[in-house]
Predict the 3D structure of the following.
Amino acid sequence: MSPLAKRIVAELEQSPRQFHDVVEDHMDVPWPDFLKAWGEIRAACILGRDDDGAYMIAPADTAV
Amino acid sequence: MKKSFRDFVQALDDGGELLRVNKPVDMRRASALMSQSDKAVMFENIADYPDWRVAGALITSRARLAIALDCGAGEIAARFEERAARPIDPVIVDDGPCQEVVLQGDDVDLSALPFPIMHLFDGGPYLSGTFVVSKDPEYGRNSGSYRMMYRTPRETGIDLVSPSDMRFYYQRALDQGKPLEIAVAVGVHPYEMLAASYKAPIRTDELSIAGGLHGAPVPLVKCKTVDLEVPADAEFVLEGELLPIGWTADEGPFGEFSQISGDVKWNPVFRVKCITRRRDPIFYQLQMPWENDWLAAPVTEAAGLQALRIASVEPVDIRAPVGSCGYWSLIASIKKRPGEGKNALLALLSVAEVKLAIVTDDDIDIHDPDDLDWAMTFRVQADQDLIVVSGARAKHIDPSVKSWELGKGGLPTTAKLGIDATIPEGVPKQLYRRIRTYAADDVRLEDFL
């Protein structure tokens, strides 16, 4: 994973976050780079969703 | 002559309805900027996407819808109905601007497209203004419009929850354990977008409907990697397949055309194999919900007119209010014969997911809320003039249908309400004679000032 993707994963491990919160915390990063990093996280199949649609790092058996 | 997306943007510009923004815009702020404009918007300079421009909020008023249909604002539904009834088959051409650049293999990278983030609670960046083509060996070509959520540089989600021909095609492919090939054209003329949302019977090629709306065949090019054809003048095209995984991947929320934030849905995944585009593409950002709602209205209105005529009721005017997202309500005035208030309601309630229909006589201006209220107050008896139909087809995005109780892939139903606000049978018309001022035409106030 890229350093940016690892940073986002670390943030999601702390607590569930809405997508817009993840975006806002990385406004210093060019948008294409953010999209690539988000794609890395998606491809790793480690994300989960809570009832409000927020993203979190999920156990393997519940990842989406 | 068939018109392109660029022709429409130019028509908006010529009509003083387009705002061109030359300063660099970050795609994380594009939607917020568009939402502050009372005109259609063209961003000429996109940060980190030097090859691209972005256009959006193109149709957020009846006036701009009329420009799209090249008619007067009061003629939209009739124009759509008349032209959609005279389909013209598309033609295949050898090449088109949508394939000036072809990206395959390792060059396929969706992060190189300026996906916007549009609404506060969206689950990701979205492609909203899509014209999606698919094919079934038995039922033929189909076109529709489906939102797509960025997942990875090669994958998007797609909202395939609601009943549609493409959902049916996908289910048939899924039953055989096969993917469904699709091609996603973006930046097509509003006629194509209207045809895509037209509830055509299965086996009807929406591209022929688009041809009817244009009054000329839609030129198509063959895709590079899938057995499909797309409008040759599109701005860009994504080719690929819906994976045979069923409704298992999270998608959403996305600001729905029902003007609600929506929730997480379970949907298939679209894997992109090829991207083709113009050398200088314009990314079309359909600004939800208003642009979608204005595009939905003429389709719903035309379907209502058609349903009334099939029911042998003579319509005078019809409106799909934007408050109902141009989709869930129909209000019509008719030249009524005895019993036709109810016949008209039955016809209007048969249209798609219309769940509220109101019918008035032709002396009521259905665009004037006060006039409509007056008719509903004085021409309606609740125990005689309401129709309720239970268990009809519905859409998930209406919270009142409680779709969360259905499980993955389940389809909701709804109740429908009809209000007959025509003069009741047996009530003399003269009892509704409206007040008119005595000698109103004989004097002018300004002559006394």
Notes: The interface with chain B takes residues 18-20, 23, 27, 30-32, 35-36, 38-40, 42-43, 47, 49, 52-53, 55, 64 of chain A (CB under 8 Å). The first strand of chain A starts at residue 47 and ends at 49. Chain A is about 50% helix and 10% strand.
